[in-house]
Amino acid sequence: MAKKQIVPTKTPMPEQEPGERIHNYEEVPFGFTPEQAMAEARRCLECAKPGCMQGCPVNIDIPGFLKLVADGDFRGAINLIKETNALPAVTGRVCPQEEQCEGPCQLGKRFEPVGIGRLERFAADWEAAQGEAPIPELPPPTGKKVAVVGSGPAGITVAADLVRKGHHVTIFEALHEAGGVLVYGIPEFRLPKVIVEREVQFVCRMGAKLVKNFVVGTSATVDELLEEFDAVFLGTGAGLPWFLNIPGENLNGVYTANEYLTRANLMKAYLFPEYDTPIARGRRVLTIGGGNVAMDAARTALRLGAPESIIVYRRSRDEMPARAEEIHHAEQEGVQFNLLTAPIALHGDAQGSVKELECLRCELGEPDASGRRRPVPIKDSNFRIPCDVVVLSIGQSPNPLIPQTTPDLAVGKYGVVTVDAETMKTSKRGVWAGGDVATGGATVILAMGQARIASRSIDEYLGTGAW
Fold it and tell me: Can you tell me the distance from the alpha carbon of 407 to that of 453, in angstroms, rounded to the nearest whole number?
């Protein structure tokens, strides 16, 4: 048998030029052609003990789908992916593959790992191009009813899994569009809304019912849902933004990333004047934070017309939690990085609008609980950065509405719902939780991984009644 020829680098994925894409909201990468996808899939070493699967929170059969793509069996590849992943077009775009499936790739120990995320995206996009995706064969109805609260990645995953088991599922969404953080938080240029809508509609075509504009906690409490449903899954995300608690945060022109991105994404401020959504279009926009959300906000500012968009982060680039690809794209587009910089106050003009961010220079100390080196402010190093819009992107917590209206639902630090990691059961019988509501802000794929654990536990409970 001939020795497999190793291709050391990933097949490049075509994308828009930076100077062009900052003037539109279209997706940045164009995706693979079939020929490019097959070439990339053939880079797989077909290891006897593949590490890639252990790195995947939803346990996709990665070697299996790569082999199918390499052979040109794209239908087989997407069908295999969808056995464990209800949102492949989403995770293929926003998953941190470099830390998960691609991180343990054997090829990556000496060369660039196989572009697993790019190939997952290709398979999902290929299916979409064929027309409406076929519905898998479903078992007879069990008669059991499940309420899924929230239509983000966790909720959609649970709904898809349980519909496939024959249970009746109703998804309750507080907003006017389904998708959760996928539609209000992630910009169009990174995840087009039509893709999210297509994935949600696929779950609905399988049999899930979607109810929008329904706020659990006011429209109905969890206890009231339990009167009608046999089980409840909470996938409400983490929509409560954190603040710096520094002077001036109430000045005009200061946004949380949650508000800024929701206005731009879900309310389509980027399509003004077709959509007359108010949003401050600053000339010098500062985004405070170093995660993926901060990159999204800084890149959105450019597309809203800001000549200057600047990231302000208190650690160095090495400690940034954002994906390397997101930082790279931001740099390509002209986002500036003001690192080792700690904000201490916001200053405004006589009209109450923000004009300057006062900061201290920092140096890195010993690692903290996150494993990253702790920023230590340098005494008397104060300086000011002129600005007219500031976006705070420093983290978020779950909305407290459901815990406040469900007295026997235990919560932990920052209002995160307490769960059993093995089952995702909460302290309340018949109620599960997963995703950001159970972890604080995390990733789409980790939310989906928790959702798959929850769906298995819910299915077992519905079958046995044992808690």
Answer: 25
Q: What is the pLDDT of residues 231-258, one digit of tens each?
A: 999 999 998 999 999 999 999 999 999 9
Q: Which residues contact 174 (CB under 8 A, 6 or more apart)?
A: 150, 213, 214, 215, 216, 236
Give the start-end residues of each E strand in 220-369. Answer: 231-234, 240-241, 254-256, 284-288, 308-312, 336-338, 341-348, 354-367
Most confident of 54-58, 99-103, 140-144, 365-369: 140-144
Tokens of 375: 């920023």
The region, left, alpha or beta by phi > 0 then psi within -120 to 50, assigned to residue 435 is: left
Q: Cβ of 206: how many Cβ atoms within 10 Å?
A: 16
**Banded pLDDT at 1 (limits 50, 70, 90):** very low
Distance CA 330, CA 341 (A): 18
Which structural domains are found in the chain, ordered by start? 18-129 (1.10.1060.10), 145-239+398-464 (3.50.50.60), 243-394 (3.50.50.60)
What is the average pLDDT across 263-285?
88
Contact 77, 61 (CB under 8 A): no
